[in-house]
Write a structure and sequence with these properties.
Helix content is 43%, strand content 10%. The strands form two sheets. It has a two-stranded antiparallel ribbon. The protein has a two-stranded antiparallel sheet with strand order 3-4. It has helices at residues 2-22, 40-43, 63-73; strands spanning 30-31, 51-52, 54-55, 58-59. The longest helix is centred in the N-terminal third of the chain and has 21 residues, at 2-22. Strand 3 and strand 4 (58-59) form a beta hairpin. With 84 residues, the chain is mainly alpha-helical. It starts with a helix and ends in an 11-residue tail after the last helix. It has one domain: Roll (Pdz3 Domain), CATH 2.30.42.
Length: 84
Amino acid sequence: MARLTIRIWVLIIFLVLALLMISPSFTKEVVIKSVERNSTAYIEGLRPGMIIKEINSNQIKTPEDYAQVLSEAFISENETRISI
């Protein structure tokens, strides 16, 4: 019977670790996951792991803020410049 409980605890530990691997970040910040080398963003200094805090003088605190600011920036059909 003791082996069964040890197996259950091992299973629970592995499940928790698997959840942490799937979603390692519990923050609500907008983090740059990847930037292609030789892209304009890379040349301008954006790197993976950087946190986006502001776009066009609008504070970014959540992914929803980020989506809203970008959708507002690209509403017009004109060329749009975004400063981060």
